What does this fold into?
Amino acid sequence: MKRALVLAALGLLSSAAAAAHPHVWIDMRSSVNFNAEGAVDAIGVAWTFDEFYSQFATDGIDKNKNGKFDPAELQDLANTYAKNLKDYRYFTFVETNGKLIDTGAPTNAKAVFDRGQLTFAFRLPFAKPVNPAAVKLSYSSFDPTYYIDIAPTPSNSVVFTGVAPKGCGSALRKVDTTKPGALNLAQSVKMTVPTDSVLNSTNATVVDITCPVSKTK
It folds into this structure.
């Protein structure tokens, strides 16, 4: 169990080897929450792991030996993931106008095991709400070591919650880059100072959130 948590939560593998051979595959869904003023104040993320890793990750969590994963056992797993991912920005990077911003600690961390697959979900609150009509808001979930492959689901990968202004939308884009920094990004994950253009240094799928500029008379 400890080894599973280290592999998923810390991605301990050399960057070059992991880039060539991902070992864990994740289908991702995300939700963008708008507050009453029409600004984004949090992003929710749900990762569904592949069947093989799901079995690996849940091995040994049935502590009461009743042959199933009880809610408390799954919650312990979710809490451990959330704790271990802190120093790695929860593998979720948010930028405004190309500058990486900090988020608060995850809330609503939850793990669900259904039809042989483990899903880990959490919510990342923003330190300050972001108005997508005024700044460029982008985010992505990825493992900088490339040990874990995180990809949006084919459909309904991004949804809006809260009070989204009319005309707001989301778009997925793949950053195709051969920059050397793409393989060395893992070295800068444990950052205390935001770094610019992190999302342009990876080949992960990036989500762009846009809203129309309000017209005033």
